Structures are given as structure tokens and as C-alpha cells.
Amino acid sequence: MSCCAAGTESAAELEALKTEGPSAEEMWLSSRPLGDGLRQVDLIVPGVHCGACIALLEKELPSIRGVDHARVNLSTRRVSVVFGARDAGADDAAKAGYHPETVLTALGEKLKALGYPAHLPGGADETADPAMRELLKALAVAGFASMNVMLLSVSVWSGAEAATRDLFHWISALIAAPALIYSGRVFFASAWGALRHGRTNMDVPISLGVGLAYAISLYETITHGAHAYFDASVTLLFFLLAGRTLDHMMREKARSAVRNLVRLSPRGAMVIRDTGAREYLALDEIEPGMRLAIAPGDRVPVDARVVSGRSDMDFAVVNGESAPQLVEAGSLTPAGTLNLTGSLVLEATRRARESFLAEMVAMMEAAESGRAGYRRIADRASAIYAPAVHLLALGTFIGWMMVSGDWRMAMLTAVAVLIITCPCALGLAVPVVQVVAAGRLFENGIMVKDGSAMERLAQADHVVFDKTGTLTRGKPLLINAASVAPEHLALAARIARASRHPLSQALAAFDAAGDGLPGLHITETPGDGVEAITDDGDVYRLGRAVFALDARDAGVERAADASQVILSKNGAFLDIFLFSDQVRRGAAQAVARLKALGVDAEILSGDREAPVRALAGELGVSAYVAGVRPRGKVDRIKALTAEGHKPLMVGDGLNDAPALSAAHVSMAPASAADVGRMAADFVFLHDSLEAVPLAIEVSRKAGSLIRQNFALAVAYNCIAVPAAVLGHATPLIAALAMSSSSILVVLNSLRLRRKTRVEGFARPAAPEPVSRAAAAPELGARV
After folding, report:
1. In whole angstroms, what is the distance from residue 49 CA to residue 187 CA?
2. Structure pTM?
3. Considering 565, 580, 595, which residue would you say is the last residue of a domain?
4. Residue 370: left (phi > 0), alpha (psi -120 to 50), or beta?
5. What is the rounded distance in angstroms from the CA atom of residue 100 to the CA atom of residue 66?
6. How far is CA 86 from the centre of its chain?
7. Tell me: the pLDDT tens digits for 525-545?
8. Is 110 exposed, middle or buried (0-12, 13-18, 19+ CB in 10 A)?
9. Of 337, 354, 371, which marks where a domain is finished?
10. Residues assigned a catalytic role
11. CB neighbours (10 Å) of residue 18?
């Protein structure tokens, strides 16, 4: 088994994976070339659960002849293996022993031998989660057993003697035994897997403590002893399983970010053959050069070029700006972009696996792998703690055997040492604080996905903001309603109801009657605007100046930093409607508070230079870059990391997802795209951007309490361990001391709840709805 909770997979499922793993041919077909004679194959490994698993696989897999290196992604449970002969041709590689079939066969066998059966990405296997089902079952059994054994223990502690006490002990033994066998296998399998590979982990002392406590309790029950410790065994199991289950749930949320991004790609497209016939082909069957028919409402399946047609398209996945962009013959349409208004004929330029969307997924997975290498405080502590506990208990047993020669006394003392040093306080030091801190954040409208995210947020020293939908509301707002003629506004609002364009929808909100223009002939010209013809033959146009006006009025000035829509009658100017975006509530205050916390800020946006510069000046942010694509945001995050910074990325769009994953820690508003929310570590529900400094403050306070808890746990061990080693603590006293240390840690953690809200955070009484829309250009204009 693996060094972690690989035992949570059902035996049947693991056995099936072992026998039905991918063949060398299947792995070869799913691999992709990297250049220099290297290829990469990605495998899903359900048994990966912790940093020790990562260390084992990244150490052992490169030992296979022909494997260059391996990278393990803990969040997605994906192992990426690079193999082949660098700078060598196929013949040279084969002569050197790097034949692909040999390498991939050895790879599959190595994974099985290490206890990590794998399968290829995709299909039901990737989305199924048998480990979660097994954890929940184990948690339920341990909870039921612990409650019943505790009730019996209370009776014994209350003074039950002789036959009654023995009866209660036997009943407790019968309840605890199946619970230990069924629920404890999560830890037993993990501990055995670690020992098999010559290592130790936190589950080894837990398994020893639980197992020996039950064994010595059973011995005491058989010999009519006064004390038994069945309650300690099953209760410890319950709390540890609860923590592992929550951790598993958080990782599932992280994995779903990549899956949601993949769903943006359609399953296929309608291909136009040379004969004019139309045929639906699956995504993987679409080749460069094929012509694709894309109807309004369809997403582009692969990177393509417009052959014919004209339409507004949503490029949010590319630049984060939801304002539609006009495309026509010759325009490029990356995979994942959404066709809004007109029918198009596209020519595929790349395969699905090489498309823009595939590149986005690859960037997210690579970033997740890098961030998954972050070692939690508890992981670092366990690397030292677990071996020390083993040696201490073994030394205690040997010492008492040499001194007294009484194996029973030596065993009781060793068990007392294991129980008193059982890492409950250490295990609670981090998660209890994180739970309390998560509660504090939730009270203020901030959701946290993973406890390690708070550890990383406490270290953040630089914030990178997206603009539209993050620093701004991203909702077009009519800013000159008071200066336009009321009858013109009412007319424009009625015409606008026929269009799906964001600016039209903003205008349509002023249609008090809500019935549009019944009886009129209304048509929309994609990229230009809407035309309405009355029964009298009058033609009203709403949209771009070049569409709405004839030559004599074509010189209407465009307002600076504002989007505009023109209303005309028979080509003559009637009125102009100006739109602008609004800064999100609390943005200026958030930037000021970040500076007070010693955190620098900058803006990275896919929007135009002028609005980005204006917003940066308004908020007091000196560093900003406009026109940035997803790759550019990721590169900037990597550059900051290389400079020694711990960047926090705050973004909302589909195009921000790779940067959110690449950052040391990330945050997104609730109005963000699904992929953005899933990729982020924090999601704030309220409209105010002051959630960002608030989360940093709470995380820093949580980090301080975690360090205090570790100090308390160390101080407890310094006092309790010598007493246990010297034989002054029975297993019962050890259990009570262990519980006391845990309670002390919990009470210290609860100090974080002294205030219901961090001072200075203004929670809005009635949050206004937030949109992801960007500051839109004039109707149908290019971005």
C-alpha cells in the first residue's frame, strides 16, 4: 500500500486497477512530444494523499531507465512522467535501452509495486471518488462506536466494580474491535505502507497507540483489571478520521477547477465537407483545415479562423473582458470562446490537444503541481515528531525490561508513553485554528477552501489584482441618463430589449413598460446594433455611430473613458448614451489597508490602456499593465515568485484561472466564473473588496495562534513525557493528560473568536448584485 491513506480505496477497486492498468501502447498514444527526444505521459493515481506520497513517487519513478523526471500533483492526483532520450534520435534511444514500450511497461509495473495503481485521465474513473465514500463510512462507524463506548466508560468511572465493570469492559471490547478493524484500516494501511518502504509518518504512532491501547485493554479485561482504554482508541480514531475527511473534501474542490475548465470545450462540432454535406465529428476527430459551422450560442471547439460570417463573440476566456468582440472573415477565434449573435463558418487551425483551452488546462495543472509542493506546518513537524515518538516508546520498553524484568509493566509504561505522546495536540494545533479562522472569515462573507491556504495567505507580501469584475463591478452603467431626453431614453430602452449585448441590456432596464416595441420589424446586425422600422416607414437605429448615422452626422465625438451608443432616426442623430464601469465598493480602502499591512499591489488586466491607467490612478496603485493575456499573468506571477515574493492573485475571469492556480495564494469574488472560483483558495461573497486585507489579517492572527499551539504542545510533552517514561503515569492518566493538552490547544484557538469582525471592514447592509461584465466598448466595436 501507499504511505498514506491508500487503504481508503475499496479492495475490489484497487484490485481492478492493479489488473486493468493502462498498457504501454495506451500510455504511448496518450503521451505528447516535448522536443529534444522527450515525451510526457499523464496518469491519474488515486492513492496519492500527502507529501510523503509525492516524495516517494518523485524519487522512485526517475530510477526507471529512460524516465527523465516525474512530477506529482497532489490536488489532481496526477503524475506527469517525462521519458525518452534527451537530444537523441529514436534509434539511439532504442540502442541505449530507452525503447518507449520498455520504459512505459516498467513505469506501470513500478507504480503497482509501490502501491499506486494508475489509470489514464478522462472517463468516469477520473470523476469517481471511492476514497471519499470509504472515509465517510469509516467516520460513521468510528463515531457510532465512540459514543457507545464512552457511555459505558462513564458507568465504569462512576464506580462500577467487579462483575459489572468486567461486563462493561467486555461490551466495550466487542464494540471497539470491529470499529478498529474497519475504521482503523485507513491509518493501519498508511502506517504499513510507510514501514514497508523504510520510512515513518504520523500514522505509525497513531496506529501503534490505538492498537496497543486496545490490546492492553483487552488483556486487562481478561485478567479482570480495573482499567481499560477502549474509549481512547475509538474516540481518537473518530477525530482523526474527521480531519482526514475534511482535508479530502478540500482537495476535491481544488481538482474540480481543472474539470470545470475542460467542460468549456464542446464534445464536437458540425463539420462542413467539401461536397457541402454536414457531419458531426467528435472533438478529437477535428483536424486543422476542416471547416466548422458555429451557430449562435455555440462554443468554438478548437482554435480556428473565421472564413465567413459576422458575429459578436464572448472572449472572456481569453482576456477576461465580457464585452462582446466583433469577429468577421480573417478573425481568430481561440477554443472556448462563445458565439453570441451570428452564424459563422470557421476553419480549424489546431487540434484540440494543442488548442488555447488545452494550454489553459496545462498551465493550471502545472501551477497546481508547483503549489502542491508547499509543505504544511504539520507535515514538517510530523517528519521529526513521529520518529522521535517511536524511539522514545521503544527505549522506554527496553529500559523497564532491563530494570524490572516485568514485561507487563514495561508494556504498560510504553503504551502510556505512546498515548501521552499521541499527536492529538499536535494534530489539533493547526486544524482547530483553521476551523475557527474559517468561521471568522465566513461571518464576514469569505469562504476558504483549504487550511493550508491560510498559512500561505499569512505569508503574502504582494497582491496582483485583475481589473474588470474584481476592482470594478464589471457592469455597464448608463452615466448620462439625466442629460438625455426622457422620450429618447424610453425609445432606446424599448429597442434595446431585442438585443443580448451588455450595453443594450443596460439600456433595456429603463423600459418602464417592459413590452419592447410590439408590432415593429426589429432586426439586429451583429457587431453594429439594432434597427427598428415603424409602420410609417421611419427607421430607428441604436448602436455604433457608423451604423446609426449617415455621413453628415458621422462625426459625433466619442466621450473619453466611456462607451457610447447612438440613437438615430432615418440616419439623423437623436441622442447619445454613455456607459462606464464602477469601482467596486471598498477598493480604495482595501488598497490603503494593504499598504498599511506592508503588502504592495499592482493591476494586471486584459482591458485597454486608458481605463486601466485611470483606475490605477484613482486607487493609488502605481504598478499596472494593460492588455495582458492569461500566459502573461502566469509569467508575471512566476517572476514575482522568482524575486522572492509571495504573491496573492485576486481575479474573477476564466482567463485568470491559470494565474490563480500559479500564485502562492489566490482569491476571487462570488461573481467570478465557475472556473475562477474553483481555482481560487478564497471566495468573498460581499461586494466590498475590503475582504482582501481582512482575510490577510485573520490569516496572520491564525498563524500566530498556530505557533502558540505548537509551543503549548511542546511544553506539554516536556512535562508529561518524562513522567510517563519514569512510570508515574498509567495509560489512563496518559489518556487524561493527552485529552487535557488537546483541550488546552482548543481553548487557545478559540481566542480568535473574541471579535466577530475585524475592525474597519464595512459589511454592506444590502449587497448589490455583481456582474462579471467588463467596461464595454461601443455596441459591436472591437476590443
Report:
1. 12
2. 0.56
3. 580
4. alpha
5. 8
6. 34
7. 776 788 998 888 889 999 888
8. middle
9. 354
10. 466
11. 13
